[in-house]
Amino acid sequence: MQGQARNALAGTVDGGDLLDRDRRIEPDRGPGGGTVEATPLRILVVHNRYQVRGGEDAVVEQEVASLRRAGQTVETLFFDNAEIRTVADRLSTAYEAAHAPRGIASVLEAVRDFRPDVVHAHNVFPRISPGVHAAVRATGTATVQTLHNFRVTCANGILMRDARPCEDCIGGSPYKAVRHACYRGSRLGSLAVARMIDVHRRAGTWTRDVDRFIALTGFARSRFVAAGLPESRIRIKPNGLADPGPIRDGARAGILYVGRLGPEKGVVPLVAAARLARGPVTVIGDGPLVEAVRDVPNLTYLGPRDRDGVRAAMAAAAAVVVPSLCYEGLPMVIAEAFSVGTPVVASRIGALPDLVVEGETGLHAAPGDPAALARAFDRIVDDPEAARAMGRAARAAYEREWTEASVTARALPIYREAIAARAASPQRDVP
C-alpha cells in the first residue's frame, strides 16, 4: 500500500490488514427496540493523520467506532504524516499536495477492493488532496467531506493571524498566506497549501465533486458558505463522544484548562487571568507556550495526561475554561466537560457562544481579556451551587446533542442523501 496504513482501530498497527470483512456487528437498538438503520451501509473512512496527534484524530477514531457499534460496515484508510521525515520528503509532499497522485491511487484501490456505498473524507492535507473527490466521483461512489477546520479557504485552517481572527482569504486570494507565512511560519508550506486551495477553487472541486459536506456548527457553516461552498449541500453534525457514565457527586474546586498550549488557544490571557482570580487554575497539555504556564502564581501545570487522567480532572473541577482567540471548529473539550457535568467558561468568539449558553451551561468572557476571564472564574468560585446547576444543564446538553447514538442518528441520513444524490446524477454535477 505504498506506506499507507490501513487499520480497523482495534489494536492493529500500521501496515495491518483491512477490516475483517466477515466480522458481524449487532446493530444498536433504539428506544423502541428497533435498529438504528435497517440496511447497514458500507463506509470507507479516509483520513490524513497529523504528525502530533490531536483532537481531530481522536474524533475520527471515535466516529468509526460509533458507526461500527451502530451496525455499519466501516473500513479505514489512514495516511500518516509521521512518514514525512526528510527534506526531500517535505519538498515532494509540498509539490504533490494539490493533487497527491499516490494518495488518490491508494484511495481508488480501496474503493475497488471494498466497494463502499460512500467515501467519507476527513483531513486530506497533504497526502490525499481534495482531488480525491473527483477521482471517487468518477467511480460512481458518493463522497462526504467533514470540514473540521477552514483549510478549504485558509492556509492555517483557523482563520487567524497575529492573534486575531482573519478572513482575508475568504473570497480573496489564498496566496496572501505566503506573504504572512500563515502555515506553521513557513512560506514554502504556506505556498503548498495556498496552491492546493487555489487549484481546487478554480477546478470547482467543492461545488461539483462533493455530494455532501458536514460542518460542525452553524457558525462554521456560515464561513464556508461565504467561502463559496454550496449551502444546499452543507449539513450540520457535531462530533460524538462515548458516555463516561453518571456524573460525579461531591465538592468540586478550581478552574481547569485542557488543550494545546498555543497562542491561538488564549494561553497568554489565561495566565494573566490566573494571577487575578481568587480560585486556583490548573493546566493540562503541551505545546509551544509550555514555559508560559510554569511557575505562575495561582496556576498549577500538570503536563500532558491520558484520557482517563483528563476525565478525572474535569470531573473534579468547578469549571473548564476554553479561552480561545481563534474560530474553533468544535472543541471536544466542551463535549468532554459537559459529559462529566462540568460547566465551561468560554471566549465570546466564533461558535463558542452557541455551544456554551451563558448562565445555563457556563459563562462567557471577551476573547483576550484577562480581567473578564478572572471575573468569570470568580463567579464560579463564589457561587458553587450555581456552578453545579450549570453542570447539570451541561450534562443534559451532552445527552441531547453529543452522545454516540444522537450523533450517529444524524450522520446516517447525511450518508444516504449523498448516496441518493450520486445515484441520481452519476454523469453530471450533483444537485
Topology of helices and strands:
Layout: E1 42-49, H1 55-69, E2 73-80, H2 87-96, H3 101-114, E3 118-121, H4 132-137, E4 142-147, E5 160-161, E6 164-165, H5 176-180, H6 187-203, H7 205-209, E7 212-215, H8 218-226, E8 234-236, E9 255-258, H9 267-276, E10 281-284, E11 299-303, H10 307-316, E12 319-322, H11 332-339, E13 344-347, H12 352-355, E14 362-365, H13 370-382, H14 384-401, H15 404-424
Parallel strand pairs: 1-2, 1-3, 3-4, 4-7, 7-8, 9-10, 9-12, 10-11, 12-13, 13-14
Antiparallel strand pairs: 5-6
Report on the structure:
The structure is a single chain. With 431 residues, the chain is of the alpha/beta class. The chain folds into 2 domains: 42-240 and 405-424, Glycogen Phosphorylase B (Rossmann fold); 255-402, 3-Layer(aba) Sandwich (Rossmann fold). The chain has 15 helices and 14 strands. The protein has helices at 55-69, 87-96, 101-114, 132-137, 176-180, 187-203, 205-209, 218-226, 267-276, 307-316, 332-339, 352-355, 370-382, 384-401, 404-424; strands at residues 42-49, 73-80, 118-121, 142-147, 160-161, 164-165, 212-215, 234-236, 255-258, 281-284, 299-303, 319-322, 344-347, 362-365. It has a 6-stranded parallel beta sheet with strand order 2-1-3-4-7-8, sandwiched between helices. A 6-stranded parallel beta sheet has the order 11-10-9-12-13-14, sandwiched between helices. Helix 9 packs across helix 13 and helix 11 crosses helix 14. The longest helix has 21 residues, at 404-424. The chain is globular and about 60 Å long. The relative contact order is 0.11. Residues 1-37 have low confidence and may be disordered.
